């Protein structure tokens, strides 16, 4: 039914599209006008491809009006609404008209949470960042390498997030994989804020006696905050783990309940800062009384366009670690530089 409605929307606005200039236009508060192609809006930032120039990114608070009549756009607002249509200037500053088949919806520019062309290619739906850091001291004669990053994919009803990080110790004669974490999450939205979720993960933490953990899980969640500066998710469900201790002892299949809380806070006034916070608690089913916790805090400060100075803090707790005699709590700080794409 949704596809049929969208076909009629496309037919209904085609005449209006043909009657207008083929170029998209953004109007800045300072009077500047830029002509080109509107690509997307994500986390309060508009990406635009000007004629005869490279892509630019602009904070929504700096934009007075937008005109984009060449494509049908999917617009998500901070009021948890999803709208399809073309974009037209309104007579009021900082407001745009979304023209649909038989209706026009007026929204504030800064109320746009996500926007992208409804027919855009798969590759254009990806975004993310990659960071790396390295430290070395002559007195200890060892270096520490760390890397982290994430890749996001967003479509009409789906979100996919791949997040990865690793910490390694390097000496003249050895290379140690101290900590590794790869997490793949898939969300399918059956309403603007509620979703079903699936999880695949790999973990390694030598401090906790864990040589390897594979994890598969399913659950449900809700995006309960979507404002101009904050996104927040909560999810819960069931996971199955297969663990291998540092003594090469296999655990078999271990079942756990999990709950997760995740916040994304972003500020686009100077200095531009993005903060990601995640806290996950696991309750043992197969192993009665076992409780685990994974926490992470990432702070990114944009020094120049798309280049960030990053600070990460992680915690891992396990009251029944797989390695005999292993500690139950591990934490660390990670500094580095990251590139956003």
Question: Short summary of the structure?
Answer:
This protein is mainly beta and 341 residues long. The chain contains 1 helix and 21 strands. The strands form 2 sheets. A 12-stranded antiparallel β-barrel has the order 10-11-12-13-14-15-16-17-18-19-20-21. Strands 1, 2, 3, 4, 5, 6, 7, 8 and 9 form a 9-stranded antiparallel beta sheet that branches.
Structural account:
- This protein has 1 helix and 21 strands.
- By secondary structure, the protein is mostly beta strands.
- The protein has 2 domains: 119 residues, no CATH class; 216 residues, monomeric porin ompg (Porin), CATH 2.40.160.40.
- Strands 10-11-12-13-14-15-16-17-18-19-20-21 form a 12-stranded antiparallel β-barrel.
- The longest helix is centred in the first third of the chain and has 17 residues.
- The protein is elongated, with a radius of gyration of 23 Å.
- It starts with a helix and ends with a strand.
- Extract low-pLDDT stretches: 13-21
Overall number of domains: 2
CATH architecture of the largest domain: Beta Barrel
CATH top level of the largest domain is Mainly Beta
Number of strands: 21
State which percent range the strand residues make up: over 45%
Classify the fold: give the CATH topology of the largest domain.
Porin
Shape: elongated
Helical segment count: 1
Radius of gyration: 23 Å
Give the structural class. mainly beta
The succession of helices and strands, N to C, reads HEEEEEEEEEEEEEEEEEEEEE
**Helicity, as a percent range:** under 10%
């Amino acid at each position: 039914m949704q596809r049929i409605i969208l076909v009629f929307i496309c037919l209904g606005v085609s005449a209006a599209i043909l009657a207008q200039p083929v170029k998209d236009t953004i109007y800045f508060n300072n009077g500047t006008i830029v002509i080109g192609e509107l690509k997307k809006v994500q986390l309060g930032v508009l990406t635009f491809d000007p004629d005869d120039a490279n892509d630019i990114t602009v904070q929504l608070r700096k934009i007075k009006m937008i005109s984009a009549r060449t494509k049908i756009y999917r617009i998500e607002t901070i009021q948890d609404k999803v709208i399809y249509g073309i974009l037209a200037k309104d007579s009021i500053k900082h407001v745009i008209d979304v023209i649909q088949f038989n209706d026009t919806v007026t929204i504030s520019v800064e109320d746009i949470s996500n926007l992208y062309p409804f027919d855009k290619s798969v590759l254009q739906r990806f975004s993310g960042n990659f960071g790396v850091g390295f430290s070395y001291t002559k007195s200890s004669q060892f270096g520490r390498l760390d890397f982290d990053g994430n890749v996001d994919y967003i479509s009409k009803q789906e979100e996919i997030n791949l997040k990865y990080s690793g910490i390694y110790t390097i000496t003249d004669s050895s290379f140690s994989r101290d900590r590794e974490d790869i997490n793949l999450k898939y969300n399918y939205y059956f309403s603007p804020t509620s979703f079903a979720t699936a999880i695949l993960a790999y973990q390694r933490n030598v401090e906790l006696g864990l040589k390897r953990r594979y994890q598969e899980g399913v659950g449900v969640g809700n995006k309960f905050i979507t404002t101009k500066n904050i996104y927040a998710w909560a999810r819960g469900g069931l996971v199955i783990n297969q663990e291998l201790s540092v003594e090469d002892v296999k655990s078999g299949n271990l079942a756990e309940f999990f709950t997760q809380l995740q916040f994304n806070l972003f500020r686009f006034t100077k200095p531009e800062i993005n903060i990601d916070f995640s806290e996950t608690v696991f309750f043992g089913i197969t192993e009665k009384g076992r409780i685990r916790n994974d926490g992470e805090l990432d702070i990114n400060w944009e020094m120049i366009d798309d280049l960030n100075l990053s600070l990460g803090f992680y915690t891992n707790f396990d009251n029944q670690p797989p390695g005999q005699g292993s500690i139950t709590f591990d934490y660390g700080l990670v500094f580095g530089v990251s590139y956003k794409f």
